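Practice problem: predict the structure.
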Amino acid sequence: MISCWKARAVLPKLDAQRLVEMLEALDPAPPAVSSFELGERGLWEVEAFFTTEPNEAELVRAVGAEMRIIPVMDENWVARALEGLPPVRAGRFFIHGSHSTSEIPANAIALRIEASYAFGTGHHGTTRGCLLAYDALSKRRRFKNALDLGCGTGVLAMAYSRTEHRLAVATDIDALAVDKTRENAKLNRAAPYLRIAAGNGFRAAHIAGNAPYDLIFANILAGPLMKLMPGIRKHLAPRGNAILSGLLDEQANAVLAMARAHGLRLVRRSALEGWITLILER
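Answer:
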């Protein structure tokens, strides 16, 4: 059975970056988008996942790039993603699939995240960067409430709630990601602490009612981050921290300049696998 449709393109890095921005700007329902370096000749692979089959000619006109569209079958792609997927250690957090349960270290905060259609198994440099940033921050201060904006699998919200045992709001524009976050929250004993909703940016349910936040995660991409910066500033408590990722090195300065223009100062900038994570403070 077909679960969704994938549009794929392989491009040089800057062209791939532009394609991601075009895909995320599609209206009315942008797809879930990922991009990964292939490790050869500076090429990047861009994938966009659609719940209904897109018209290939219309998609090419909309994004300005040739993309091959193929159906994704339920029983094949998740199995392939799981195959050989190792667990990930990020500070005190241990992200693993069911096949690695026996490897959980003593005293680790273990989060079971099975490979799926939602972004955030902990293997990507952006997710690990956010987990490491939060691990470092949480050793210096306690947080009262958090927002995970663009939650994917919910891994960051769950890392927070399992550490602090306090409320976290988790939202994503993708309803499939929200469903996966709900599933993972139950699996990881985090459901009582999470308020989960689908929605675009700060218009998602629960966000306004639980603001201000002393911690905001936003592991998305540079373009959306810059558009959301006024909302991040508005919903962040005084002396609150924002952990931002999804940034290539050449994008980080522009995002940081936007953050400073909205009264946020840089606490730490780190790089992991070519991706930048920023810790900001209001």
